Structure formats: structure tokens, C-alpha cells
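Title: Request for sanity check on Hydrogenase maturation factor HypA prediction

Description:
We are preparing a figure and want to confirm that the structure record we downloaded matches what your pipeline produces today. Could someone re-run it with the sequence below and paste the raw C-alpha cells into this thread? We only need the C-alpha cell string, no images.
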Amino acid sequence: MHEMSLAEGVLQLVEETAMRENAQRVKLVVLEIGRLSSVEPEALRFCFEAVVDGSIAHGAVLEIVDVPGVGWCMPCGESVAMDEAFGACPRCGSYQLQPTGGTEMRVREIEIE
């Protein structure tokens, strides 16, 4: 389950930010997770709750923003929506798609006090 190591990485980033800003606690963490990122949001949520126990982020709310998948279809020559990494183009049915968006996972916001 790679979500556990991802949750640990997010916590490390959150703790470094909180320390740099002399925060007393972390109230909110907002993550953007792309549909094509191979990250299971609910598994990440579960792992995040486990790793923040006893940390400055204990009790912080984790908000996950879904980022849609986008890809470049070579035969169509256009950007199209992608729901899965190896799916077909919704316009022409080709499998020659290059993902251009929705593969990322990033911390968008950290609310501290």
C-alpha cells in the first residue's frame, strides 16, 4: 500500500511548514489528487489519520480535491477527458492517449494556528 508512504510524506511536509511558521497546531490539509495518479483517496485518508496521531497535525481535517484526467489524443489531435490511465479516447476510440493532466498529487493548502 503506497498510500501509507504518501501519507508519511504529506505529514513530513506539513510538519516542516508548521515548524517554519511557528504554528501550534495544524487545522486543515487540502490535497489535490488526480484521477490518473494511481492514488486511492480513501486509502490515503485512512493512512493520513493513522500517521498524524500524536503529531502537530493530530485532529486536522483532510480535504481531498479530485483533479480530472486529461490527455492528448494523437489521432484526434485534441485534448480529451480521461477517466482511466489506459482508456480509449471518448471521441475516436483510439488508445493512443498521452496523459497531460490528472496525474499529480500535491498539497494545495495547510491551515495552521
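Thanks, this matches our download. Strands lie at 26-34, 61-67, 69-73, 78-82, 97-101, 105-112.
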